[in-house]
Structure formats: structure tokens, C-alpha cells
């Protein structure tokens, strides 16, 4: 019996290289398709911006400033939040925002007319309804709820 010395083969064959290139191409095409369909609007980000604007106005009210109002508006491209001299916006890309006092069943959509939330000198909710919690719903690819309690607390989720 004769033993032959087989040389060590290092590297990849041409077939293996072509298969890897095809696999990378397929995975890239699937990944690009997933990202191309996704919306850049984030209901979570809009919820966080609304909470920030609300806290800004509440802190201004507690400090005795007359700028104690959050103004929320919607145009064809974005939601805008203004509070205590600061203003910021987020593109909505077809998403909706609505609010309702917890005593009501019907929600009012945030439209191009300004929706205003005002706080009293103690940081409590004064308008649009005094002494009632307000629930905001923001919907897009997913849905988020923000509760603004009558005492001025802001938290994510439905009002209890």
C-alpha cells in the first residue's frame, strides 16, 4: 500500500466564492426592501416630544412665568410642539394624534388649529379642562398613549 502526500489546499474554490457573493446579494436585497418600506415617523418619539413640551410648560407655570401653555398643531407635513419659548416639530407622514378628557368617550383630533394645554401656578392642568386627566393617542406604524393627569403628571400609557 502506497501513501500519497496530498498538498494542503488553502483558500476557497471558485464555486464557494460565487455562492457567497450570491448569498450576500440576496440578503442585501431583502434588507433594502425592509428598510425602504419603513416609515421614518416614530409615534414613540412624538410621545416623548409631547411629554417634554408639557413638562417645559408646567415648569414655567411653577416658576411663575406667563408662558405656561403647550401649543400642539399639525400641518401637512409635521406635528409642532411649542412651550416656554421653545418650539420643535416632527414629521408625521400620515400619522394621527388625538386627545380626550377621560370623562368623554370621543377623542378630538389634533388639527391645524392649535390645541392648547395650560397649567396653573401650582403646575396643575387648567385648560382645556380643569380637574380632569387628558389622554393623548398617537398612531402611525404603532400606537402610543400618553396620560396628562389633572395634577400635571405626565406618563406613558392610558389614564387610570
Can you offer a commentary on this structure?
- The protein is α+β, with helices and mostly antiparallel strands.
- The protein has one domain.
- Helices cover 28% and strands 31% of the residues.
- The protein has two helices and ten strands.
- It has helices at residues 14-37, 43-62, and strands at residues 69-74, 78-83, 86-91, 96-101, 108-109, 115-119, 125-127, 134-139, 143-148, 154-156.
- A five-stranded antiparallel beta sheet has the order 3-2-1-6-7, covered by helices on one side.
- The longest helix is centred in the N-terminal third of the chain and has 24 residues, at 14-37.
- It is elongated and about 100 Å long.
- The protein starts with 13 loop residues before the first helix and ends with a strand.
- The model has no long low-confidence stretch (mean pLDDT 80).
Number of domains: 1
Backbone structural class: alpha+beta
Mean pLDDT: 80
Helix content: 25-40%
**Rg to the nearest angstrom?**
27 Å
Terminal CA distance: 86 Å
Number of helices: 2
Annotation, overall tally of beta strands: 10
CA-based shape: elongated
Q: Give helix and strand order, one letter per element, not per position.
A: HHEEEEEEEEEE
Which regions have little confidence, pLDDT < 50, spanning 5+ residues? Answer: none
Largest sheet: 5 strands, antiparallel
As laid out across the biggest beta sheet, the strand order is 3-2-1-6-7
> How much of the sequence is in beta strands?
25-35%
